[in-house]
Write a structure and sequence with these properties.
heterodimer; A: 294 residues; mainly alpha; MetI-like fold; 2 domains; 12 helices; 74% helix; B: 292 residues; 77% helix
Chain lengths: 294, 292
């Protein structure tokens, strides 16, 4: 009994069109990023791009080796994970195992504020507060450095880990905890050796999502980490990430159609593929290792 | 007590101590976030408060920090957000209605859902590149407010869709059956019953996603918003700047005075965000109480 009134047809068309717009967005992202990247790869070999160790598209001689940007991005992703993962997991354990409902209802929203603050604010904070402290502790710290950016990005992604891991830990049934207590385990042992492993799939998925967000994070990194493509693992030095390169190029007036302009899209497509892959992995972890408790 | 028991008691005491320490460590980790937030607010207010004044709101940016203001940035933000809301709200709500109420349960629709949740995870700067390629170049809209607003709309759409779907899901099925049993068409049911009762939830989602968009900087920089604008935009085709970009511009200068200006700009931005979030929380609170 499917019947639609004639005058409602436009409504249905509008609803369907709106839904399909999201598909169009994806297609457009993939199409335009790849199209513009192909222009680039006509001039520069894929090999040079993937394995070159110098990234100097803005001056001569031009080098288009993407490794310095990748290393900068990964350095910040890694260091931010050092901040966000332990703090996030311990916050999640506190929220799900220790906090009473009163503390939970205010602590969780307050932590969410951290992820609601615009990233440019974090960048400002890193530059004017975190970097001076780092400089005091380690005098060799540069004005722009990866460590300061990593710390604020880590704090920015902390609520994501805390909130998703808390959900995963709360889904662990009480009976498992009680079994632990019955065997004489202390509360810490139950939390760390029973609840945490039982919730591992959700916790790991939250790590991957947080790292993916750290990779895509732009403004805080641009402000705090500087703009020097630098193949280094020293977090006290200045590095450039993929995202901050895109911003740097956008700030200058790069003419349309030049090779420099095309690099925007090459980096964009690389970034898009990396984050897509990571989101896919986190989805996979959730699907494959999800424990079903009845 | 034999020696085994003594050893056991000792070990037990040690384990209990470890448990207590663990508890305190977890508490400390939870409080670290709060501590960080406190430092952030303190740093920004102590730096920026002295620069806050009526002149700061009503002046254009300037080379002289004491004369600089955020008038062009605020009007740019208002223009941009109004257009973004105009584009993204109808489309986002329509898509969520379609997915929740009309979509056939087929594999294709499942694909669309996965697609939407993936779009929500794409870094915002990539949306900027999309806007640059499509709106600025292909559509020929140039580096205008319109290009920026359309880019922003694509960015917030997945978030609005996901939030609105959650709100529509909470509407009880009995309401739908009652409408249908009285002979309403599906659209009448949605328009007269489902939407009104999901509205507060949808509004909450919309406000939260738009408040995220207000602080968004990177995609607009890529689309070509300017760092220094000394006029208020008059039409959607004008060049523009927005508050976060103005803040970025000031924060990336080396002089300390401009850093203080940036902090003052951040205070304004945070106050706007605070107001929007309070409205969202208020709506959510009313919504929860009504459904009980």
């Amino acid at each position: 009994m499917k019947f639609v009134r004639l005058k409602e047809v436009p409504v249905h068309i509008f609803l369907l069109f709106s839904t399909l717009l999201s598909v169009c967005t994806t297609i457009a992202i993939v199409f335009f990023l790849f199209k513009e990247s192909l222009v680039f790869f006509k001039e520069v070999s894929v090999f040079e791009y993937l394995f070159g160790t110098k990234w100097t598209p803005l001056f001569h001689p031009q080098h288009f080796g993407f490794l310095p940007l990748l290393s900068g991005t990964l350095l910040i992703a890694f260091c931010s994970a050092i901040v966000s993962i332990p703090l996030g997991v311990m916050t999640a354990i506190y929220l799900s195992e220790y906090a009473n409902s009163k503390v939970r209802t205010w602590l969780k929203p307050v932590l969410e504020i951290l992820s609601g603050i615009p990233t440019v604010v974090y960048g400002y904070f890193a530059l004017t507060f975190v970097t001076p402290i780092l400089k005091y502790l380690f005098p060799s710290t540069l004005v722009f450095n990866a460590a300061s950016a990593s710390i604020v990005v880590g704090v920015m992604t902390l609520p994501m880990i805390a909130s998703l891991s808390d959900d995963a830990m709360r889904a662990v049934p009480r009976s498992l905890r009680d079994a632990g207590y019955a065997l004489g385990a202390t509360k810490a042992e139950v939390s760390a050796k029973i609840v945490f492993p039982a919730a591992l799939s959700g916790v790991l998925a939250s790590f991957v999502l947080a790292i993916s967000r750290a990779i895509g994070e732009t403004m805080a990194v641009t402000l705090a980490a500087g703009a020097t493509p630098n193949l280094t693992i020293n977090p006290l030095e200045s590095v450039q990430t993929m995202t901050s390169y895109i911003v740097q190029l956008s700030l200058g007036d790069t003419p349309h159609g030049t090779l420099e302009y095309q690099t925007l899209f090459v980096i964009g497509v690389t970034l898009f593929l990396i984050t897509l892959l990571m989101n896919f992995i986190s989805e996979l972890i959730l699907r494959k290792y999800r424990q079903k408790y009845e | 007590m034999n020696s085994n028991e003594i050893q056991y008691e000792k070990h037990l005491a040690f384990r209990r101590k470890k448990s207590r320490i663990f508890r305190h460590m977890c508490l400390a980790a939870s409080l670290f976030g709060l501590f960080f937030l406190g430092c952030l607010f303190y740093n920004i207010f102590s730096n920026g408060f002295s620069y806050l004044s009526l002149n700061f709101i009503s002046n254009f940016p300037s080379r002289f920090p004491e004369k600089a203001g955020i008038l062009s940035a605020i009007s740019g933000s208002i223009w941009l957000m109004s257009l973004t809301a105009l584009f993204s709200i109808p489309i986002g709500v329509a898509a969520s209605i379609y997915l929740e109420e009309f979509a056939p349960k087929k594999a294709f629709m499942k694909l669309i859902e996965i697609n939407i949740s993936n779009l929500a995870g794409v870094p915002s700067v990539v949306y900027g590149l999309l806007g640059l390629a499509v709106f600025v170049r292909v559509f020929g809209l140039g580096r205008s407010i319109l290009s920026g607003a359309m880019t922003m709309s694509l960015l917030v759409l997945p978030v609005i869709i996901i939030a609105s779907r959650e709100a529509i899901k909470t509407v009880p099925d009995s309401l739908r059956y009652a409408a249908l049993a009285l002979g309403a068409t599906k659209w009448q049911m949605v328009k007269d019953h489902v939407l009104p009762s999901a509205l507060p939830g949808i509004m909450t989602g919309i406000i939260l996603s738009l408040s995220r968009a207000i602080g968004e900087t990177a995609p607009l920089l890529v689309v070509g918003a300017l760092g220094f604008v000394a006029f208020t935009p008059k039409s959607p085709m004008d060049a523009f700047t927005v508050l976060p970009i103005q803040i970025f511009n000031w924060a990336s200068r080396p002089q300390a005075e401009f850093h203080k200006l940036a902090a003052a700009g951040i205070i304004v931005l945070l106050v706007v965000l605070l107001i929007m979030n309070s409205i969202a929380i208020y709506l959510r609170y009313r919504f929860q109480n009504r459904n009980k």
